[in-house]
């Protein structure tokens, strides 16, 4: 009886060890097979979390600063206003009294409020994190992120100007313009930049192969 019990205990321990070994081997093979995918996901999450944390610190630091509600939102608001003046519109921006945003007024009509999410920084962080996760060498990656960020900023500025004019002339179309059409412009631009970057890396890999 004692012998049977010892054999049972040995067999159970052996089965547990064998199961753990098989699982470890399976996970190892899975990791090797999908190493590039896992590397991309981990890198993307780390970069995105780091940049988002830094951006949050920036927003916290901007609270109560000279540039209301924060420097980049204030800058985008002023540039949108200047763009509208160039187009011949009598526009102005004023601090929103009830929330951290800027009110855009055209010919005395309140058209649009510019919040922190309108400054394109969050989109730039998303764009840069994706490109960095697919990084090849530092210099071309840095230059592409820099050029792409500037392009996103400019496209976002043009988007805000067109959106402002659209809301001014066609206020009844506010929902479709603000929630569908114009978000597609900025995110569509980011998507195209991602596709270009992936194709560039694929062409380089084929050339080096």
The helical percent reads over 70%
- Structural class comes to mainly alpha
Please give the number of β-strands.
3
Largest sheet: 3 strands, antiparallel
Whole-number count of domains: 2
Q: Radius of gyration from the CA trace?
A: 26 Å
Number of helices: 6
Q: Please report the distance between the alpha carbons of the first and last residues.
A: 65 Å
Strand order of the largest sheet: 1-2-3
Which segments are poorly predicted (pLDDT under 50) over 5 or more consecutive residues? 1-10
Q: Could you state the order of secondary-structure elements as H and E? A: HHHEEEHHH
What is the molecular shape? Answer: elongated
Could you report the average pLDDT, rounded to the nearest whole number?
Answer: 83
Q: Beta-strand percentage?
A: 5-15%
Describe this structure in words.
With 209 residues, this protein is mainly alpha-helical. The chain folds into two domains: 1-33; 35-208, no CATH class. Helices cover 75% and strands 8% of the residues. The chain contains six helices and three strands. A hairpin with a 6-residue loop joins β1 and β2. The model is unreliable at 1-10 (pLDDT under 50).
């Amino acid at each position: 009886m004692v012998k049977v019990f010892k054999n049972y205990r040995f067999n159970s321990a052996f089965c547990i060890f064998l199961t753990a070994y098989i699982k470890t081997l399976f996970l190892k093979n899975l990791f090797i097979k999908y190493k590039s995918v896992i590397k991309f996901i981990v890198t993307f999450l780390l970069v995105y979390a780091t940049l988002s944390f830094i951006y949050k610190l920036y927003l916290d630091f901007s609270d109560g600063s000279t540039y209301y509600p924060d420097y980049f939102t204030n800058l985008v608001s002023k540039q949108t206003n200047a763009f509208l003046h160039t187009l011949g519109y009598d526009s102005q921006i004023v601090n929103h009294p009830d929330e951290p945003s800027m009110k855009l007024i055209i010919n005395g009509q309140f058209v649009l409020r510019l919040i922190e999410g309108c400054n394109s920084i969050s989109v730039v962080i998303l764009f840069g994190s994706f490109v960095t996760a697919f990084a090849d060498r530092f210099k071309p990656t840095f230059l592409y992120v820099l050029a792409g960020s500037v392009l996103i900023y400019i496209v976002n500025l043009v988007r805000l100007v067109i959106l402002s004019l659209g809301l001014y002339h066609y206020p009844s179309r506010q929902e479709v313009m603000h929630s569908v059409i114009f978000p597609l412009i900025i995110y569509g631009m980011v998507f195209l930049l991602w596709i270009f970057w992936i194709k560039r890396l694929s062409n380089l890999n084929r050339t080096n192969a």
